[in-house]
Amino acid sequence: MKLEGKVAIVTGAASGIGRASAVLFAAEGAAVALVDRDEHGLGECQAAIESGGGRAAAFVVADVGTPGTAESVAAEAQRRWGGIHVLMTAAGHSCGGTVETTSADDWDAVYRTNVGGTWLWAKAVIPLMRRAGGGAIVTVASQLALAGGRESSAYIAAKGAVISLTRTMALDFAKDGIRVNALAPGPIETPMLARSFARQLDPDAARQQARLRNPLGRFGIPEEVAKGARYLASADSSFVTGAILPIDGGWLAA
Amino acid sequence: MKRLAGKVAIVTGGASGIGRAITRLFAQEGATVVIADVTGTVREGGTPTHELLRAEGFPVEFVKTDVSAEWEAEAVVRHTSERHGCLDILVNDAAIGLGKPLLATSREEWERVLAVNLTGVFLMCRAAVRQMLRQEPRNETRGRIVNISSQHGMIAAPEDIAYGTSKSGVVYITRQIAADYAKDQIVCNAVAPGKILTGKPGRAVEPRWIEYSQSRTPMARLGTPEDVARAALFLASDEATYLTGVNLMVDGGWMAA
Predict the structure, then answer these.
(1) Domain for residue B22, yes or no?
(2) Is B3 inside any structural domain?
(3) Catalytic (active site) residue B163
(4) The domain containing residue B205 runs over which residues?
């Protein structure tokens, strides 16, 4: 059990990568604070964890980018379970569009969730982790931030910011024993991926093109990203910080 | 639940240092391990790795191998698949350093470093992939390769141009094999260690290089061979099923700074 006795906060836990990671962390012995705006999805995730004998608590948060929410969730998780050892910021939001077609409001919303939802939560847990002697923060970027992509400018720019933010946080807090690393998932079968293909003129063709471009010839599933998250969250990666771990079926290599 | 239960692995350079730690961890996780090394002598001292692990009951053997010799690279792969039925995992850890800058490096020295560190990886991968292609997939994978690269191969290796150049080639060959053989369900990734204290004597632990490494490592400590071994285990196991062509940095933050 890789996370026995640990307490984890996972944002975006109602679906996709966040949910698969929360379930896996709980299976590895962690108590998990589940954060999302989707109350129903959170309930399902909590039920899945508890039916497996794990511990979880759900926190409905309308906007992870609003200052103050992270502090109150962290304080409550600390009160319940005694500390915070792992933070995974899997809450993401994407709207599609180029810089020409994206509205200012949509741009801000994408940044608020992806970048605000990373730095504000790190800001809240770092003092608690420092006091506890260390911790692990796992951020979620994207292969698109490294490889480039089209018609999703706000999202891609925001994920680039997550990568830079991951590295600089790793440096700022290395001596506190807090490790900060990023996952860079490729195309993973999640509701967000489905929405992004649905925005294309020919969704099926777009899916097929993406599949063919990928050396493994398929999309990933959330559990595959969760396994990478587990490695980065646990003591298995105790000399790893400031690293970017692509889980992309080889896309970045080809 | 052992993460490499029933798997057969070759670890080049497995007699010492990082390779020794990888061999031990893989054996503990249920793998049968063939150490392919030019010598069984442990650079940092101690009982030869295969003897130590066999005494603990693990199925580990030693096959004297110079990875830069085509016939020897082929032979250890052939021996492994004949003796143990298949080859699931190849770890290319064997490497030599030189410790000389450009103007002090002779042509022979340059070629020797490339021969072991890069051509050796090529020869071992070629033999391994040929074997893996003959195997049926298990859990959707025919075989996995883990190459040990280095942060010196992305940034300058202080006063060791041949080593740094060879390691950059290892990162590239990792990507190429990953891209070319993904469709055949062969997975190839790399681990890029930072400064790892293996206990070996010599240039690596001269005070000026230790101080330099500490100044470049954001974390409060330097690395251990077990840090690298755990990354190699992650990449060699079914935990890494949508990961290929990756160069995973295990460096205490060196490359992030």
Answers:
(1) yes
(2) no
(3) yes
(4) 8-256
Residue with tokens 């109602």: A14
Residues in chain A closer than 8 A to B242 (CB atoms): 186, 188, 216, 220-221, 224-225, 247-249
- Cβ atoms of A110 and A93 within 8 Å: the answer is yes
**Which chain A residues have a beta carbon less than 8 Å from that of B231?**
236-237, 240
Cross-chain CB nearest to B182 (options A225, A241, A250): A250
For B133-147, give the DSSP string: HTSPPBTTBSEEEEE
We find that the CATH architecture of domain A7-186+223-253 is 3-Layer(aba) Sandwich (3.40)
- DSSP class per residue in A99-159: TTT--HHHHHHHHIIIIIHHHHHHHHHHHHHHHTT-EEEEEE--HHHHH--SSBHHHHHHH
Active-site residue, selected from the candidate residues A25, A155, A173, A251: A155
Residue in B228, B239, B257 closest to A171 by CB: B257
Residue B238 lies in a domain: yes
Residue B52 in contact with residue B78, Cβ under 8 Å? no
ipTM of predicted complex: 0.93
CB A222 within 8 A of CB A189: yes
* Closest-CA residue to A135 (of A143, A145, A125): A125
Which residues in chain B touch residue A238, judged by CB atoms under 8 angstroms apart?
Answer: 227, 230
Contact: A225, B249; criterion CB under 8 Å = no
DSSP lists the bridge partners of residue B32 as B8
Task: Find which of A193, A223, A239 to mutate to test the B interface (most B CBs within 10 Å of its CB).
Answer: A239
> Which pairing describes strands A7-11 and A31-36: parallel, antiparallel, or unpaired?
parallel
Kindly give the confidence (pLDDT) of every residue in chain A, 254 residues in length, as a single tens digit, with 9 standing for 90 and above: 999 999 999 999 999 999 999 999 999 999 999 999 999 999 999 999 999 999 999 999 999 999 999 999 999 999 999 999 999 999 999 999 999 999 999 999 999 999 999 999 999 999 999 999 999 999 999 999 999 889 999 999 999 999 999 999 999 999 999 999 999 999 999 988 999 899 888 999 999 999 998 999 999 999 999 999 999 999 999 999 999 999 999 999 99
